[in-house]
What we know:
Aconitase, domain 4, alpha/beta
Amino acid sequence: MEALRLLRSRTVVLPVRDIDTDQIIPARFLTTTTRQGLGAHLFEDWRFAPDGTPRPQFALNRPEARGCAILVAGHNFGCGSSREHAPWALRDFGLRAVVSTQIADIFRNNALKNGLLPVIVEPDAHAWLLEHPGAEVAIDVESATVTLPTGTAVRFALEPFARYCLLNGIDELGFLLARESEIAAYEARRANA
């Protein structure tokens, strides 16, 4: 996982409420245990017609969405069943952050564990972002702020451990493996006590 400290990007806006994990990555693509290639099927049923041709009106298919690393989504993003494939697909597509007024807890936890930053903002900031697709924003992980092009800085909640992992480009397993000698020393002390 690469570290995420400061993300500057244009936004792509998908103002749909209650986007569930099956819409993010349909269940028929959950046959893989690798993260690569899932981005091709991100929002499959919305991005493509039944014959496989891209729907040009869909936000992620529009030319101005190319290169955007921040998705601004409607309220209650990532609801539905738990599947790590959803943040994997978003990351594989090139997105590094999702901004909404509410992000489902299970999706939020899965996202953080996989280097995708879920950002929950107040309704006023969210409304501004929805009204300004393609806005160039900056997300600072250290200070947990989103800075709008107007100069307004909006704070968001980010747990210290999640912040540490994002800033250092590690997941929970990487965090534990980096402390293997400390864990072994602790276990040795306990065995001798």
